[in-house]
Amino acid sequence: MTEGCAVASVLGMLEERDAAARVRVEGLREEAARLAEVLEAAEIELDRRVIAREELVDALAVSAAETTAVTEAEQETVPSPVPGSLVPPWRDGLPVTVLAPDYQRILGLLEKRRSAGEGPVKAMGIAAELGLGTTPANVEGVRSKARRLAERGWLVVEASGMFSAGRQSVAVPDAGSSA
């Protein structure tokens, strides 16, 4: 009878392993179904983001085209600068009052420094002397305005990034001589 018990116990072990394998397979099927749902949701989200990006690129392209058309139309219809609205190129006889107040303050500060015999100053120094503080946002705002003034001939900017008072005529497209 010992032989019959051994066979029965081997069959019992095989049945236990079979049951465990079925449980594992069922668990894996459930996990695969759950992952398929997660994958589908992620694919839908990806599609939405791709469509949103494409729509944004299209909208920006249309907006840029419209802005360019409006800018070109404004350049044709507005021959002289509107006081305080932009930084016109410097030319002899052009008053400082055509500049916005922030630009006038920067220019005034650098003129005062030049009169006092002080040398060029970095944007951080301008911001500090104007009482704006030296936070990165304030310094970058001053630097942007000072560079714009330098590009238009109102200030001088050195290679070191320091600004000083000084004026130079700049060429203005389709405006004839700027001197």
Number of strands: 2
Envelope shape: elongated
User: What spatial order of strands do you see in the largest sheet?
Assistant: 1-2
What is the H-and-E element order? HHHHEE
Sheet of most strands: 2 strands, antiparallel
Question: How would you describe what is shown here?
Answer:
- The protein folds into two domains: 1-77; 96-165, Arc Repressor Mutant, subunit A, CATH 1.10.10.10.
- With 179 residues, it is mainly α.
- A two-stranded antiparallel sheet has the order 1-2.
- It has four helices and two strands, in the order ααααββ.
- It starts with a helix and ends in a 14-residue tail after the last strand.
- The protein has helices at 2-77, 101-115, 123-129, 136-151; strands at 155-157, 163-165.
- The radius of gyration is 37 Å and the shape is elongated.
